[in-house]
Amino acid sequence: MSTISYTAVGRRKEATAKVKLQPGTGIITVNKKPGETYFNYNSEYLSTLRGPLLALGLENDYDLHITAKGGGIKGQTDAVKLGLARAICTMSSEKRESLKPHGYLTRDYRAKERKKYGLRKARKAPQFSKR
Q1: Can you name the residues that pair with 21 across neighbouring β-strands?
Q2: Annotated Gene Ontology MF terms?
Q3: How much is the pTM?
Q4: What is the rounded CA–CA span in Å between residue 66 and residue 112?
Q5: Cα dihedral 103→96→5→16 (10° resolution)
Q6: How far apart are alpha carbons 52 and 80 in whole angstroms?
Q7: What is the Cα–Cα distance from 47 to 81, expressed in whole angstroms?
Q8: Residue in 20, 29, 12 with CA at minimum distance from that of residue 88
Q9: Does the structure show a pLDDT above 90 at 4?
Q10: Which residue ranges form the domains of the chain, and what is each CATH number?
Q11: pLDDT tens-digit readout, 35-64
Q12: Is the separation of the CB atoms in 25 and 60 below 8 Å?
């Protein structure tokens, strides 16, 4: 007998997170570590990734099994948030209407701008010398 699970992928900058949502007691596991340990007990990160569940009042009804790769912790947190919102939408399409106004289903497309030739960074030019 297999348990019901919902899976989705979220991305932000260079970070990618696969989120698996299963009925449970609210345990968060990131890369086989407890969520609090992985995010260094930072309450801001933990509340950000729990956002979609808190908006629907489901924070203690589902366990999260997350695989996060790339980027930094902040990017991974936002990737998890998007993946979680998408997983909730696959669970029930009625929940989409309550997640959409909060912005949980919107992917933040901003990424690092590429370096251009003749410049030191993406936009930083070498110092101009008149003579």
Answers
A1: 6, 64
A2: RNA binding; structural constituent of ribosome
A3: 0.88
A4: 24
A5: -30
A6: 10
A7: 10
A8: 20
A9: no
A10: 6-102 (3.30.230.10)
A11: 999 988 888 999 988 899 988 888 888 999
A12: yes
Token look-up 């086989």 returns 32
The whole-angstrom separation of Cα 66 and Cα 23 is: 14
Measured over the CA atoms of residue 84, residue 9, residue 69 and residue 24, the dihedral's sign is: positive
Take residue 1 and report the two structure tokens written for it: 């007998």
Separation CA 19–CA 30 (nearest Å): 9
Q: Can you tell me the distance from the alpha carbon of 83 to that of 50, in angstroms, rounded to the nearest whole number?
A: 11
State both tokens at 103.
Answer: 């912005």
For 23, phi and psi rounded to 5 degrees?
-60, 135
Say how many C-beta atoms besides its own lie within 10 A of residue 31's C-beta: 13
Number of other residues whose CB lies within 10 A of the CB of residue 127: 6
Q: What is the C-alpha to C-alpha distance for residues 2 and 35, in angstroms, rounded to an integer?
A: 24
Q: How far apart are CA 68 and CA 80, in angstroms?
A: 8
Q: Hey, what amino acid is at 129?
A: S
- Confidence band, pLDDT 50/70/90 cuts, at residue 1: very low
Q: How far is CA 75 from the centre of its chain?
A: 7
